[in-house]
Amino acid sequence: MSNKPTQQKEELVVKFAGDSGDGMQLTGTFFSDASALLGNDLATFPDFPAEIRAPHNTIPGVSGFLVQIGQKKILSPGDLCDILIAMNPASLKSNLKWAKKGATIIVNDDTFSEDAIAKAGYTTDPLTDGSLSSYHLISAPITTLTKKACEELGIDQKTMDRSKNMFVLGMLCFITSRGTEQVLHLFDKKFAERPKIKAINTKVFLAGYNYAETKEVVESVIVVPPADKALEKGRYRNILGNDATAWGLLAAAEKSGRPLFLGSYPITPATEILIELAKHKSLGARVFQAEDEIAGICSAIGASFAGAMSCTTTSGPGLSLKSEALGLAVITELPLVIVNVQRAGPSTGIPTKSEQSDLYQALFGRNGEAPLVVMAASSPADCFYAAFEASQISMETMTPVILLTDGYIGFGSELFRIPKMSDLPQIHPPIAAANDPNYKPYNRDENLVRQWAIPGTEGLRHRIGGLEKEDGKGNVSSDPHNHQTMTNLRREKVLKIADRLPLQEVVGEETGDLLVVSWGGTRGATLSAVQGMQAQGKKVSLAHFRHIFPLPKNTEKILSGFKKIVVPELNDGQFVNYLKMKFPHIEMSQYNKVQGLPFTVNELTEQFNKIMEGK
Q1: Strands 589-592 and 81-86
Q2: Mean pLDDT for the chain overall
Q3: What is the C-alpha separation between 483 and 305, in angstroms, rounded?
Q4: Contact between residue 526 and residue 542 where contact means Cβ atoms under 8 Å apart
Q5: Residue 21: what pLDDT?
Q6: How far is CA 515 from CA 278, 527, 573, 588, in A?
Q7: Helix (H, G, I), strand (E, B), or coil: what is residue 568?
């Protein structure tokens, strides 16, 4: 630790930006994990190019990683950053707008050649033309210093160049009082089976730390105290949203007593769920990487028929391909969890950017009357609990459930308090008993739920499938009145699920001047904006929805209690239009953003104030 003067901050936002291949995601992850080990709460947002390999030194090729660490509960990765790391001119050009005035900017001046400066769109060198005078600029020959640190290790030029991100990590750890112990511990774990890589990274990291200390690159170092008072006691880890989703599915399989099966096709940004589940064969997970999206969901439906807790994962384009099979899952009334990690569309769109634009598809994107449950997770850690609940609802009510997450929370991370399995509720699938003389495939209980007859169970031979079936008995039927009856039963079964859902909560008073209504991954930004306005004495509240179809039973009551309602969404107005369909007598305004970027707290606060002022 440094003996320099310190400045204490309740929260700190750091943005890592560089060319693809500069290792900004890894650097940001190491910094985040080290901060977690020191007891800070945090939230992260990786932002990388859609192109597999964008042209070198261009703005489309810039890869970023945003992290906010804090002494208090952190709800979002932050807006404007206190520290910006820019590894080349393009990353400085594209990210300077996200730096606070007075922010510390660390640049690798070895990359600021005339050609790279021009390619980034500058007409003069920003390091010398005075355009950065309102910031604290730390300009260091990072590539040169990295090579010097590696001279004794006998490694090739390419490996030396790729290690410069660790030099920056060392500088940053000095500036933010991280010390070296936590990062070196992370190196021990990350590179345990690659001692040479560990030695290189250790050498370069310590060189960066020592450089920042000996050159006195800052007048005072930043201290962000641990978040002991803001966090509930327990065992924590920094977790990605996609990993949390996988863990939630695993936990649900254990609590239900059913084996877990995932049938999926790789697609950005959902593939990591498949990868994570594939690691857990010892926990009973069976993962099938199908040849396409249709095979993925059809294999999951087959596994569900066979008695497995089945799921499939995808993103918007894949959900389109799965729509016919979704209808099969609806008409057979089999449990199935469909995780859609939304991305910017339509079509291929911008695969690595995030949106909330698949809500219409989840609600209505099937032929015929095919109702199913639609839910949305709200943060990386919440993906665990949302996946668990989606699985519980699906198995206990024998209906498919679409769980919407998005790239923002799927790729993002936050601190996750690891729950005890004993604290999670038991899941009770309605499995039919052997040799039940009263069993028929479409007999229903008081909640209109049919039983799950596992193939091979004595005395339970039955038929289900995509053709309409006779009520109760399950014989193929094209009788018009029977079709009406079965349509009504499938709809009412899903609507009755509202009886088991918790009532919608409101952050703040249940009446007031403005109600902010949000859903999914926007919770961190909307909650931060609302809490900031509440601290100023303004009568604004937040209703953030997890359950979308069916809606919580008190939804209309909540919406009716406010003078004005605004629904901010990362789409063109899908949830607000859905709510207007349900409650046409309630007036609502909307604020929409379709840029592949999350909301910032500042822009939401500005919009909410304008609405309250009648502008």
Answers
A1: unpaired
A2: 95
A3: 22
A4: yes
A5: 85
A6: 43, 12, 16, 10
A7: strand
Task: Report the candidate in 385, 367, 392, 244 with the shortest Cα–Cα distance to residue 309.
Answer: 392
- Average pLDDT (535-546) is 98
pTM beyond 0.90, yes or no = yes
Task: List strand residue ranges (DSSP E) for 191-305, in order.
Answer: 221-223, 236-240, 260-264, 285-289
Q: Which two tokens stand for residue 26?
A: 């890894």
Give the residue from 463, 418, 454, 462 showing the smallest Cα distance to 258: 454
H or E element in which residue 549 lies: strand 547-549
Site of tokens 């979308």: 548
Q: Are 94 and 82 in contact (CB under 8 A)?
A: no
Residues in the chain: 615
Mean pLDDT for 332-336 is 98
Q: How many Cα neighbours within 13 Å face the side chain of 592?
A: 13
Nearest to residue 27, comparing CAs of 172, 222, 194? 172
Q: Exposed, middle or buried by CB within 10 Å (0-12, 13-18, 19+), for 417?
A: middle
Residue type at 297?
I
120: number of Cβ within 10 Å: 21
Contact 238, 251 (CB under 8 A): no
- Confidence check: pLDDT of 1 > 60: no
Which letter, b or e, does each residue of 94-105 get, where b requires 16 or more Cβ atoms within 10 Å of its Cβ?
bbbebbeeebbb
| Residue 110 phi, psi (nearest 5) | -65, -25
